[in-house]
Amino acid sequence: MRMRKKRHLEPRMERCAPVLLARGRPMDNLKEAAENYRALLDLPQIFGNENPVELEVGCGNGAFIAEKARRFANVNFLAVEICTNVILTAMERVLAEGIPNVRFLNIPAEILPCYLPPHSVEAVYLNFSTPLPGSTHARQRLTSPRFLAIYRDLLTADGRIEQKTDSEFFFDDSLAQYEACGFAVEDVTRDLHHSEWAAENIVTEYEANFSAKGLPIYRAVARVRQ
Ligand SMILES: C[S@@+](CC[C@H](N)C(=O)[O-])C[C@H]1O[C@@H](n2cnc3c(N)ncnc32)[C@H](O)[C@@H]1O
After folding, report:
1. CATH number of the domain residue 37 falls in
2. Would you say residue 2 lies in a domain?
């Protein structure tokens, strides 16, 4: 079901300008855009400090990134979300709560290299990305080889991806892709909420829904292999 466009979307987006770093697609061809278009952000200048930067891809309503930023005031957070209707909620949340260390990009993750300098990010969070089973949409999966190549270039030498999902298929496919694409898999659990990482876990909107249905949550870390 398509989500109805939010009321007063454009004026509300304008009010979010202080936390919105980029919006839209610079070109129709995403591959060409990622290779040829550059509007690289000066992250220390934007955040006003040299703190490490972490990135969530597909931030949804922003509950995760807002809580992360509250818990870790000495880390700067970026959140990417393709859907304007959705990122608006996340940005309004961060502005309303006066959280200083989060900024947003309303772009497809495919063009992150247009905006983020190489090796500028210490962690990439993938929370409940759409599993897209079957071969037709395999390239769109956020852990497909083309996305892993993008994250690898953005991550620092010992950077990591942290993934959570409710989909066993997507999880197993992702673990195989990590190993094949230059990442070492660690800290794997197939039942996060009953694992050693449960206490520090920040529950996302989708995670709460899946968990309420009794589904286990899968979680892994994939670290850049030296
Ligand atoms: C299933 S939702 C999960 C939202 C949130 N992370 C959570 O756990 O509650 C996945 C989100 O990823 C976004 N998304 C999907 N593909 C994307 C892409 N290529 N670039 C940026 N965002 C994307 C979708 O618009 C959607 O909001």
Report:
1. 3.40.50.150
2. no
Within-domain flag for 62? yes
In a domain, 178, yes or no: yes
Ligand 1 proximity of 80 Cβ (cutoff 6 Å): yes
Say if 1 falls within a structural domain: no
Q: What letter represents residue 8's amino acid?
A: H
pLDDT digits (tens, 9 = 90+) for 29-57: 888 888 888 999 999 999 999 999 999 99
Q: Which of 83, 88, 163 to mutate to test the pocket of ligand 1 (most atoms within 8 A of CB)?
A: 83
Straight-line distance from the first to the last Cα atom of the chain, in angstroms, rounded to the nearest whole number: 43
Question: Which of 15-24, 28-37, 170-179 shows the lowest mean pLDDT across its residues?
Answer: 28-37
The H or E element that residue 161 is part of is strand 155-165
DSSP 29-52: -HHHHHHH------HHHHHTS---
Global confidence as pTM: 0.97
The count of domains in the chain is 1
* pLDDT one-digit tens code per residue, 70-84: 999 999 999 999 999
Pocket test for ligand 1, best of 80, 82, 148 (most atoms within 8 A of CB): 82
Domain that holds residue 22: 10-224
